[in-house]
Amino acid sequence: MAAVRNLPLFLTAMNSAWVVTVVAIIACGLVWRRTYKAAAGPLPPGPTPVPLLGNVRDLVAKELWLVATRWAKQFGDIVYVHVLGQGLVFLNSPEATMALLDKKGSIYGDKPALVMAGELCGCENMVAFTRYGETSKRQRKLLTRAFGIQAIPSYHPLIEAETHSFIRRLVAEPSKYMEHSRRYAGGLTLFVVYGYEATGSNDKFLNLGEECVDILSNRITSGGGIWPVDIFPILKHLPTWAPGSSFKIKAAAWKARMEDFIDQPYHFVKSSLKSGNYAPSFCSMLLEDERNWNPQFEWDLKHTANSMFSASMDTTITLFCQFLLAMVLHPEVLAKAQKEIDSVIGPERLPKLSDRASLPYVEAILNETYRWGVPVPLSLPHRLMEDDVYQGMFIPRGSLVFGNVWAIMRDETLFPNASSFLPERYMEQVEPALAQKRDPRRYVFGFGRRRCPGIHLVESSAWLLITTVLATLDISKAKDEFNKPIEPKVNFSNAVFRQPDRFDCDIRPRSERVLKLLTQAEGVRF
Ligand code: HEM
Which residue ranges traverse the bilayer (predicted)? Predict the structure, then answer.
C-alpha cells in the first residue's frame, strides 16, 4: 500500500531517461518471471495492468480499501495487481485470509524491507517492521510473556486509573476529544510498558513519544513509506554532499530522535529498578531477574518496548473516534446501553472490569465498533517468502499480501445491512462456527504470525473505556446557533487507519453524581 502512494510522485520527480531504462530492466525481469512461472498456474485475477508500469493508475492513496473491495466484487476472493513488477495481493474473504495468512503463517510472516524507514531511520527493529526470523521470534516471545492473556489482570488497576483521568479531561475540555484520546493512549502505553506515569500533557516522554510517532507517520511514511532508496537501495551510498541526497540528512536527524526514544524510557526503568522504587510494567517484569541482563536480551527488550508506543497510538485513537462517531449518529444505542449499565451497576460507583460479563449489550457495542469502524481496513502488508499456489493460482514470492478486512466486515452475507451500526446483530444466538466467523477480532487485529500482540490489552482497556464513557457521559450532535443539530462531516484522510478526521459533537457529564464519582476516583491510583 505504501509503495502505491508514492510511485506517481516518485516517477515524475525522476529523470525520464533513467525511468525508461529502469522500467525496461524491470519489464524484462517481469516477462522472464512470468514466462518462467507460467507452469505454476495463472496469477490471481485483477484489473488489467498497463505495460511496464502495471497498476500504478488503479491505486489511490485515499481509502484504498474501497477500491480493493470493488475489485473483490469483480474478481473474487483473491486479487493480484502489480506496480513495476512488485506484486500486491488482496485477500478478500475469511477463507482466503485464514488459508494463507494464518495457516501458512511460516511463509506469510515476513514484512517488506524498507531501506529508508528501516535501515536509515532506525525503525528496522520495531516489531511491526522486523523481518521474519530469529529477531522477530525473540521479540514476539517477550511480547507474549508480558501481554499474554494471563498477564493482563496485573494491568487492570492502571487501566482503570488512566480511564478515569481520560474521562475527567473529556469533561473539562470536550472539544479536545482527539488530543485527550492521544494522551490516554500514550499515557497508558508508557505506564504499561515502562511503569512511567506521565505528568500532564507536557510530559517529557509523552512529548518525545509523540514527536517520534509524528516523525514516523507524517514524515517517514507520509507519502506511503516508499522512498526512491527503497526501490534503488544503491542510493543509500550517495555521499551527503551529492545532489538528491537530502533524504540521508533527514534520515540521520530522525534516527537520532528515534534512538533517544528507544534509550531514554528504558534507562528510566533500569534506574527505577535499581532504586527499588518502580511500578510493575512490561520492562520491569522482564528485568526483575537480573540473570537476564545480557546485551542480547536488553537489546531485544528495549526495541520491543519502544515498538509498543507507535503501534498503540493511532489504533487506539481510531477505535475511540469510531465509537464516538457511532454514539453521535445512534442516540438509541447510547440510551439502550446506559439503561443496561444503570440497571447493573447503579448510580453509586463507576464501572469496573469485573462487570464485563453482566453487560451483554455493551459487549455487542464493542464488537460492532470493531466491525463497523474497521480501524486498519487493509491490515498491514505481509511479505510472502516463497512461491505459493492457492486454488490453482500462482502467488509469486516477494508479493505484499493484504488481508482486506474492510471487504470482510462489509460482506452482506455475513453481516446483513453491513454498513449500519447495529450492535443487536451480536445479540442473536447463532451456530458457534458462524459466531466465530463473524467475530471481528479474527480480522481487525491482523493475521498469523504478525497478529497484533496488544490484543488482550486492548480487549480490557477498550472495553473499560467505552463502558465508562457510556456510564458517565451524554454524547450527541453539536448544535448550531439556531439550536439545530449539526450533521457530523466524516472524512477519512489517513491512508492506513480509518480514523475519522475531527468532527463536531457534544459531550457532557450525565449528572452531578457522575462528576462526584470521577472526583472521588482521582488520586486513587493503586
Ligand atoms: C484498537 C487497537 C489496536 C488495533 C485495532 C490493532 C491492530 C493491529 C494490526 C492490524 C496489526 C498488524 C498485524 C499484521 O501485520 O497482521 C498490529 C500490529 C501490532 N500491534 Fe496492534 N492494534 C491495536 C493496539 C495495539 C496496542 C495497544 C499495542 C501495544 C501495546 C499494539 C502492538 C502491536 C505491535 C507491536 C504490532 C506489530 C506486530 C508484528 O508485526 O509482529 N497494538 N496491530
Answer: 7-32
**Pocket flag, ligand 1, residue 380 (CB < 6 Å):** yes
Q: CA-to-CA distance for 306 and 283, rounded, in angstroms?
A: 10
Is 452 marked as a binding-site residue? yes
Q: Which of 452, 459, 496 to mutate to test the pocket of ligand 1 (most atoms within 8 A of CB)?
A: 452
Q: Is 85 in the pocket of ligand 1 (CB under 6 A)?
A: no
| Phi, psi for residue 219 in degrees, rounded to 5 | -120, -65
The answer to whether the CB of 123 is under 6 A from ligand 1 is no
> If you measure from the C-alpha of residue 140 to the centroid of ligand 1, how many angstroms do you get, rounded to a whole number?
12
Each residue's pLDDT, cut to its tens digit, for the chain (526 residues) gives 333 333 333 333 333 333 433 444 444 445 445 544 555 789 999 999 999 889 988 888 789 999 999 999 999 999 999 988 889 999 999 999 999 999 999 999 999 988 999 999 989 899 999 999 999 999 999 998 888 999 899 899 989 999 999 999 999 999 999 999 999 999 999 999 999 998 877 899 999 998 998 888 778 876 566 788 887 889 999 999 998 899 999 999 999 999 999 999 999 999 999 999 998 889 998 888 777 788 899 999 999 999 998 899 999 999 999 999 999 999 999 999 999 999 999 999 999 999 999 999 999 999 999 999 999 999 999 999 999 999 999 999 999 999 999 999 999 999 999 999 999 999 999 999 999 999 999 999 999 999 999 999 999 999 999 999 999 999 999 999 999 999 999 999 888 899 999 999 999 999 999 999 999 987 655 4
SS3 label, residue 485: strand
ipTM of the prediction = 0.99
Give 333's contacts (C-beta < 8 A, 6+ positions apart).
Answer: 326, 327, 365, 421, 423
Q: Please tell me if the CB atom of residue 312 comes closer than 6 angstroms to any atom of ligand 1.
A: yes
Q: What is the reported pTM?
A: 0.90
